[in-house]
C-alpha cells in the first residue's frame, strides 16, 4: 500500500503545487488482493438469441406502456376526488373566516357597475388576486416534504427493497443518517384533513395549492384545480443517470497496480486534495488529534518493530477537497417553494374572458411559462428535478376537465406530444380518457380557450434538437420524410444545422396509381410522378413481374412490374402521384342492360362512386345465382383484397345488375330466401322430433329394465333391502335366491385393495316356482 501511494504521488505531475494534509483514518480490514487473483464467475446458461431478446424487449416495452397508462388513469381519478373535496361548504366557510376582509372587498369592487371599462376591471382583478396570493403565502407555511414527486420503475423497486429491509430490522440506521426525504406523501384521507391543515396553517405545497383553490371558490371566483399527473414514464431511459462520456486512459508503458492508479489520478479534475493516513483498526483512538499509546502524535509515523519482522506501514490515500457540485454527483434536494409545482390554480377573469394561472406557493400571477419543470428558469442549477410535465389537466367545480398541456409546456410539439402518444403515434388512448371527463356541451369560454391553445401551438419556437423535428406538428426536415411523402412547395422557414426547415403543412402524401384507383380516383393524363421510389413487390406475381422486368423483358412483365414506372440497372422504380394529380374515376355506363366488366369478368367497386351509371348494387350473398337463373346480365363486385401466403385474393361481395332488373332480381332473391328458410325450419323440426323419439325410447327401455330386474338384483345393506321390498310384488314367495344379502361391507375406513371395492355379481336364472302337492285324502 505504501508503494502504491508513492506511485500516486509521483504520477500526479499536474498536482505538485497542491497543499497536503495527513489525517488518520481507521483501516477497514486487510488490503484487497491483486486483481490478477480475482476470478469472475459468469452464468453458463443458454444465451438467448436475437429474436428472443427482441421479443423480451418488446414485452417489457408493452408492460411499461400499460403501467404508464394505468397509472395515469388512477392519478386522474385521485385528482378528481381531491377536486370534489374542494367544493365542501364547511371548508368554504372556514376559509372565508380566515381570509382578511380587505381581500374580500377588493374582489367585490371589481364589478361592471362600478368599473365600466373591461380592461381596467381586468387589471383590478389581477391586482386583487396578487394581494390574495401574498396574504396566503404569509398565512400558510409550506413543509419541505410530503408533496407529490415523479418516480421511475427503478425508484419504486428501490423503495420496495428498502421497506423489505425495514421490516426485517435492517437498514434503519442507514436511512436515518442518509438525509433523504420521506418516500411517503402527505396523507389526506378526507375533507376533514384539509380543514385541519387550514387551521394548523401548515402542510405540503400540494395541500397549499388545493386549499387556495377552495378559497377562490369560496370567494365566488370561478377556479380550476390544475394538476400535472406524475405517472411512471414508459421510456426506459427516463430517470437513469447519463453515462460519462470520458473514458479511462490506458498507459502503454505502465505495468502493475500503481501505474493504473497514477493514471486515474491524472484524469481527475484539478481540485485540492487531502492526504489521509490509514491506521490499523485494532489501534486505540483517543480524542485530541489521534494520540497513540506510544505518545507520538498523529502526524508522526510509528517506527517499525524490527523484532517482530516486517510491519505494515500505514497507507496514505489522497482525498480531494469538495469544491461544490460536480458532474455526475448526486444533485441537491430542491426547495419546494422555489421549484415548479404539481398542483396550482386557474381563476377565470370575466373582464378578460380568459383563464389566469396562479401559483400560490411561489407567488406568481398570470405567468404561464413558470410551470414547466424542464425550463432552467424554474429549476435551480444543481438541484434534482422532481416532476415531469406530460399531462396537465384542469378540473372545474362541476367535475369536468380539460387538457391544458399546450398552455404550460415549453416544447409541447417537440417532446410532450410524442410522450403522450405512448409510442408509435398512438395518442387516441389519451383522447379517449379525456373524453370521459370532458363537458358534454360547449360554453363560450371553451371556444375562446381552444383558440388560445391553438395559438400557443402555432407560436411555439423551433426545436433545438434533431429529435425534436421528428413528427413535429409544425416543422419538418427533408430527412424525416417518409417513403410516400414529399414537400411541395419548397418554401424554407429557416435552417437547422445547415438543413432547410419546412412547414409541416407543405408535406404532401403520395400514392401509386393503383392505390388511387382503390380509392375511386385515377391519374390524369399527362401528369408526371412527383416522386420515384423502388417498387415494393409483396405478392408472388409482383415479384415475378419484377424479375421479368429486370431480365430485360418488359413486354412479358407487363404493367405489373411498375405501372407508370421504369426499370433501372439496379431496381424497378414506380411513380407516386399527389391527390391534385388525380380525378374522380367514372366507369362506363350500362348500355342495353349490359354491365361493364374488367378483364377478369367482374367489376371494381371499391367505393360507391365507382358504380356505373344505370346500374344497381345488390350486396346479398347468393344474388349471383338468382340473376343467373333469371338470365339477367350481372357482374360480381370486387370490394377489396385479402393477402394470404404472399398472394392477393379478391373479396367479392354481391353483384351489380342493371337498374331496370333490380326489382325483379330482389323479388326472386327474397322468395328464394323465404323458401330456403322454410326448408331449414322443416329440417330443424325433423331433427328435434327425431331426438325426442330417441329420448323417449331410451326412457321406456330404462323403465322396463328396472321393473324386470330391480327386484331380483342384490341390494346394499344401507336401505337397499327396504327399496327392493317396495318394488317386490305382494304375495310372492321369497326364495333363497331372492333374499337380500345380510353380509355387507361395513362403512368407514380406507379400502386398500380392488377386491374390497368390486364384488362378484351374477344375475339370477329364471327359476320356476314349484307348488306343493296336495296331501292325499
Automatic annotation (TrEMBL):
Database matches in InterPro entries: BHD_2, DNA_repair_Rad4, Papain-like_cys_pep_sf, Rad4/PNGase_transGLS-fold, Rad4_beta-hairpin_dom1, Rad4_beta-hairpin_dom3, Rad4_BHD3_sf, Transglutaminase-like
GO cellular component: a single term: XPC complex
UniProt superkingdom: Eukaryota
Comp. bias intervals (Acidic residues): 12-35, 176-185, 265-277
UniProt record, GO biological process: mismatch repair; nucleotide-excision repair
Residue ranges of the region described as Disordered: 1-35, 162-187, 238-338, 710-745
Biased composition (Basic and acidic residues): 251-264, 720-730
UniProt main location, coarse: nucleus
Keyword terms of this UniProt record: DNA damage, DNA repair, Nucleus
Location(s) in or outside the cell: Nucleus
GO molecular function term, any single one: damaged DNA binding
Rad4 beta-hairpin domain: residues covered: 458-508, 510-588, 595-669
Family statement drawn from the similarity comment of this UniProt entry: Belongs to the XPC family.
PANTHER family: DNA REPAIR PROTEIN COMPLEMENTING XP-C CELLS, DNA REPAIR PROTEIN XP-C / RAD4
Protein name according to UniProt: Rad4 beta-hairpin domain-containing protein
Native source organism of the sequence: Phlebiopsis gigantea (strain 11061_1 CR5-6) (White-rot fungus)
Amino acid at each position: 500500500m505504501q508503494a502504491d501511494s508513492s506511485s500516486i504521488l509521483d504520477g500526479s505531475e499536474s498536482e505538485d503545487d497542491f497543499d497536503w494534509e495527513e489525517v488518520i483514518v481507521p483501516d477497514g480490514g486487510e488490503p484487497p488482493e491483486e486483481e490478477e487473483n480475482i476470478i469472475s464467475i459468469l452464468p453458463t446458461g443458454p444465451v438467448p438469441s436475437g429474436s428472443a431478446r427482441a421479443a423480451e424487449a418488446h414485452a417489457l416495452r408493452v408492460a411499461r406502456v400499460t403501467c404508464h397508462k394505468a397509472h395515469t388513469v388512477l392519478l386522474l381519478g385521485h385528482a378528481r376526488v381531491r377536486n370534489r373535496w374542494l367544493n365542501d361548504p364547511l371548508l368554504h366557510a372556514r376559509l372565508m373566516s380566515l381570509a382578511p376582509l380587505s381581500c374580500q372587498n377588493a374582489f367585490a369592487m371589481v364589478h361592471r357597475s362600478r368599473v365600466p371599462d373591461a380592461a381596467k376591471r381586468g387589471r383590478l382583478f389581477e391586482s386583487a388576486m396578487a394581494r390574495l396570493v401574498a396574504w396566503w403565502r404569509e398565512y400558510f407555511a409550506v413543509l419541505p416534504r410530503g408533496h407529490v414527486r415523479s418516480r421511475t420503475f427503478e425508484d419504486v423497486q428501490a423503495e420496495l427493497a428498502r421497506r423489505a429491509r425495514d421490516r426485517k430490522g435492517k437498514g434503519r440506521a442507514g436511512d436515518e443518517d442518509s438525509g433523504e426525504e420521506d418516500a411517503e406523501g402527505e396523507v389526506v384521507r378526507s375533507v376533514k384533513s384539509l380543514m385541519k391543515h387550514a387551521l394548523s396553517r401548515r402542510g405540503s405545497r400540494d395541500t397549499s395549492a388545493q386549499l387556495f383553490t377552495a378559497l377562490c371558490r369560496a370567494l365566488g371566483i370561478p377556479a380550476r384545480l390544475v394538476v400535472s399527473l406524475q405517472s411512471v414514464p414508459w421510456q426506459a431511459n427516463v430517470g437513469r443517470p447519463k453515462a460519462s462520456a470520458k473514458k479511462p486512459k490506458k498507459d502503454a508503458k505502465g505495468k502493475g497496480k500503481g501505474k493504473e492508479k497514477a493514471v486515474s489520478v491524472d484524469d481527475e479534475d484539478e481540485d485540492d486534495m487531502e492526504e489521509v493516513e490509514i491506521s490499523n483498526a485494532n489501534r486505540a483512538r483517543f480524542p485530541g488529534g489521534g494520540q497513540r499509546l506510544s505518545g507520538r502524535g498523529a502526524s508522526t509515523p510509528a517506527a517499525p518493530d524490527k523484532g517482530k519482522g516486517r510491519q505494515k506501514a500505514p497507507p496514505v490515500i489522497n482525498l480531494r477537497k469538495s469544491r461544490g457540485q460536480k458532474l455526475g454527483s448526486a444533485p441537491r434536494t430542491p426547495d419546494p417553494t422555489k421549484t415548479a409545482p404539481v398542483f396550482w390554480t386557474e381563476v377565470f377573469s370575466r373582464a378578460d374572458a380568459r383563464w389566469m394561472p396562479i401559483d400560490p406557493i411561489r407567488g406568481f400571477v398570470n405567468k404561464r411559462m413558470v410551470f414547466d419543470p424542464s425550463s432552467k428558469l424554474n429549476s435551480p442549477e444543481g438541484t434534482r428535478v422532481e416532476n415531469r410535465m406530460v399531462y396537465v389537466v384542469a378540473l372545474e367545480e362541476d367535475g369536468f376537465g380539460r387538457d391544458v398541456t399546450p398552455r404550460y409546456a415549453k416544447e409541447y410539439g417537440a417532446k410532450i406530444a410524442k410522450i403522450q402518444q405512448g409510442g408509435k403515434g398512438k395518442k387516441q388512448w389519451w383522447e379517449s380518457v379525456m373524453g370521459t371527463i370532458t363537458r358534454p356541451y360547449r360554453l363560450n369560454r371553451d371556444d375562446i380557450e381552444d383558440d388560445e391553445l391553438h395559438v400557443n401551438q402555432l407560436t411555439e419556437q423551433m426545436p433545438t434538437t434533431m429529435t425534436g423535428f421528428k413528427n413535429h406538428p409544425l416543422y419538418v426536415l427533408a430527412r424525416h420524410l417518409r417513403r410516400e411523402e414529399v414537400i411541395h412547395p419548397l418554401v424554407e422557414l429557416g435552417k437547422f444545422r445547415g438543413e432547410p426547415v419546412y412547414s409541416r403543412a407543405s408535406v404532401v402524401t403520395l400514392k401509386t396509381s393503383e392505390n388511387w384507383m382503390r380509392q375511386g380516383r385515377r391519374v390524369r393524363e399527362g401528369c408526371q410522378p412527383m416522386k420515384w421510389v423502388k417498387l415494393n413487390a409483396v405478392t408472388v406475381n409482383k415479384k415475378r413481374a419484377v424479375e421479368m422486368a429486370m431480365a430485360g423483358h418488359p413486354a412479358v412483365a407487363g404493367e405489373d412490374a411498375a405501372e407508370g414506372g421504369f426499370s433501372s440497372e439496379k431496381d424497378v422504380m414506380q411513380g407516386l402521384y399527389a391527390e391534385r394529380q388525380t380525378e374522380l374515376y367514372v366507369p362506363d355506363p350500362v348500355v342495353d342492360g349490359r354491365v361493364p366488366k374488367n378483364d377478369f369478368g367482374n367489376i371494381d367497386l371499391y367505393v360507391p362512386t365507382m358504380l356505373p351509371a344505370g346500374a344497381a348494387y345488390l350486396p346479398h350473398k347468393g344474388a349471383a345465382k338468382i340473376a343467373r337463373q333469371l338470365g339477367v346480365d350481372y357482374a360480381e363486385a370486387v370490394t377489396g383484397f385479402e393477402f394470404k401466403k404472399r398472394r392477393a385474393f379478391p373479396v367479392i361481395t354481391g353483384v351489380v345488375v342493371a337498374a331496370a332488373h333490380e326489382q325483379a332480381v330482389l323479388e326472386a332473391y327474397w322468395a328464394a330466401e323465404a323458401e330456403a328458410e322454410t326448408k331449414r325450419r322443416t329440417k330443424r323440426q325433423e331433427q328435434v322430433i327425431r331426438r325426442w323419439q330417441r329420448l323417449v325410447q331410451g326412457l321406456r327401455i330404462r323403465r322396463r329394465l328396472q321393473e324386470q330386474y330391480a327386484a331380483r338384483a342384490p341390494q346394499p345393506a344401507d336401505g337397499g333391502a327396504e327399496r327392493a321390498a317396495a318394488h317386490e310384488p305382494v304375495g310372492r314367495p321369497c326364495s333363497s335366491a331372492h333374499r337380500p344379502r345380510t353380509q355387507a361391507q361395513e362403512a368407514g375406513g380406507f379400502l386398500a385393495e380392488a377386491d374390497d371395492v368390486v364384488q362378484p355379481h351374477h344375475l339370477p336364472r329364471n327359476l320356476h316356482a314349484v307348488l306343493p302337492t296336495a296331501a292325499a285324502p
